[in-house]
Amino acid sequence: MCGIVGYVGPRPPLQVLIDGLHRLEYRGYDSAGVALVDGSRLSVVKRAGRIADLEEAVAAAEPPEGRVGVGHTRWATHGAPTTLNAHPHTDCTGTVAVVHNGIVENWAELKSELIRRGHRFISDTDTEVIAHLVEEGSDLSLVEAVAEAMKAAEGALALAVVRTDQPGLIVGARRGSPLVVGLGESETFLASDIPAFLSHTRRVVVIEDDRVIEIRDGGVRIFDLDGVEQPLVEKVIEWDLAAAERGGYPTFMLKEIHEQPQAIADTLRGRTADGGVIALRELELPEQILRMVDKVFVVACGTSYHAAMMAKYAIERWTRLPTEIDIASEFRYRDPVLDGRSLVIGISQSGETIDTLAAVRYAKAQRSTVIGVSNVVDSALARESDAVLYTRAGPEIGVAATKTFTTQLVAMQLLGLYLAQVRGTMDPGTIGLLVAELQALPDKVGKVLQTEPQMEDMARRFAQVRDFFFLGRSGDFPVAMEGALKLKEIAYVRAEGYAAGEMKHGPIALVEPGVVVVGVATDSHVRQKTLSNMEEMKARGGTIVMVVEEGTEDEVSGLADEVVVIPQSPDLLCTVTAVVPLQLLAYHIATQRGLDVDKPRNLAKTVTVE
Ligand code: M6R
């Protein structure tokens, strides 16, 4: 996720762009840049770091003002967050500048072809191919050249492009990533999100997929990719600026919960090919090493540890490799038996959690191969690992992990299937079926989000409950653990996540009337066993909430006080859908209790102390 802005009008564009970028910083903040067109001159200034760093660079460079400019704040997906990789990107002639939000899936093929045709690349980004594709259309109008580039590029794209031979014009384009236009008096704005220009105008046009737009100070024209002009539908925004930054949601956490379908789709993008082959090109680890591995360790903390729990089941089931999981702060102190044939996977959203970093450093000292799974490109974990697989959730502002958890689950499922593919432990047909099911997850999560009114109503009734248990077996166990952690950390309610079959060995003594027991029973091969355990909770007077898949709700009608139904998915993949109602339950209990869910007490988003 990145933020893009554009401005055409009578004010000096630089300040409008910088203000807009500040408003979009929630979308990414590892580097930033602007391009200004003044007559036939194009000036580009960009910097690694925050927008404040860009402001310093701009002050030093004193670029010309002009009447047209585009800007970008980046959350890296391809290429480290360096000044060179920051946007805007330019073509070989230095007359085209492009800012981009999204992922060009076929960038590697396009880049090879463009290099073969004589283009020179200077960055490691996918975006630079767009600048060179637009350069190829130098004999076309800019809007036509961008339409041709859109046809060549696969994946998600929101673009803003300037070219010096059309100095009063920005061309925008959209497929899959958001783009809105703001209509002012004799000035026009373009951005990834409305807050970027809301202080200037409330009149907006939301751009649809596969559209190219011409933006001038006098207004906007919209075309499809074949150049056919499209109607312009204007609407007026009623929100205030603070609400707009949260996309109209009352909190970042709720916004991030609702961003999960997109985040999961982004994490899958370009990583599966037709016929169900997993293609983790960026892993850059010789397949020979993965074939040699004889044991896997997965280490992580907090929510990331719950993704590790799911990963153990997935890797063992799909590859038959013995897999151990560890809370990172415990790992090195237990003197684990590692060697050169061990694969250690460190999972960390931030990639900066000191316990996880210490664990992977320990593993490297034992000559083990280390794969980092992180949401932050070029994080310490990414740099210190032998290979890295990025989740592409975009920045998460709420302290409680939500979209970064579900994308970690998906990333680990991809990695598990990839290991099975490389090691030949699953037949390609079965991998293909699971890949198709992974592709269906964004829509299914979208459907689960429709349970929100039910979860909100439940939260109203449970807001004063003192004790919760969350129970599950197999793949449902990490979901139960995560449901309990969410409730603890944002609602400050005692909540235990437990293996359903383990309750009878002690904790069942705590179950009595007034205690709420949430059972997750989606994993088909243990569902009946979980239901039996839940009967034991009901017999002790617990209030029973069941999360089950469509088609199995009848099995719990006599057991549950509340039933939450989610779409069917194969075992382990349903972790991704099953956790969403529990995020919503925790969220709404916390808000019922009047708490600040984005900044829960005593917590930090990134934990850099042991
Ligand atoms: O950045 P990391 O994934 O390494 O962070 C690990 C934990 O600190 C984190 O998951 C924490 O538990 C969150 N607050 C959970 O919502």
Structural summary, described in words:
- By secondary structure, the chain is an alpha/beta fold.
- It is 36% helix and 24% strand.
- It contains 19 helices and 27 strands.
- The radius of gyration is 25 Å and the shape is globular.
- The mean pLDDT is 93.
- The site of 5-amino-5-deoxy-1-O-phosphono-D-mannitol has 16 residues, from helix 10.
Number of domains: 3
CATH architecture of the largest domain: 4-Layer Sandwich
Q: Terminal Cα separation, in Å?
A: 30 Å
The third-level CATH topology of the largest domain is Glutamine Phosphoribosylpyrophosphate, subunit 1, domain 1
Low-confidence stretches: none
Give the percentage of residues in beta strands.
15-25%
Compute the gyration radius: what is it?
25 Å
- Numbering strands along the chain, what is their spatial order in the largest sheet? 3-2-4-1-10-9-11-15
CATH superfamily of the largest domain: Aminohydrolase, N-terminal nucleophile (Ntn) domain
Rounded average pLDDT: 93
| General form | globular
Helix content: 25-40%
Major beta-sheet overview? 8 strands, antiparallel
Identify the CATH class of the largest domain.
Alpha Beta
Number of strands: 27
Bound molecules: 5-amino-5-deoxy-1-O-phosphono-D-mannitol
| Structural class assignment | alpha/beta
Number of helices: 19
Question: What are the salient characteristics of this protein?
Answer:
binds 5-amino-5-deoxy-1-O-phosphono-D-mannitol, single chain, 3 domains, 610 residues, alpha/beta, Rossmann fold, Glutamine Phosphoribosylpyrophosphate, subunit 1, domain 1
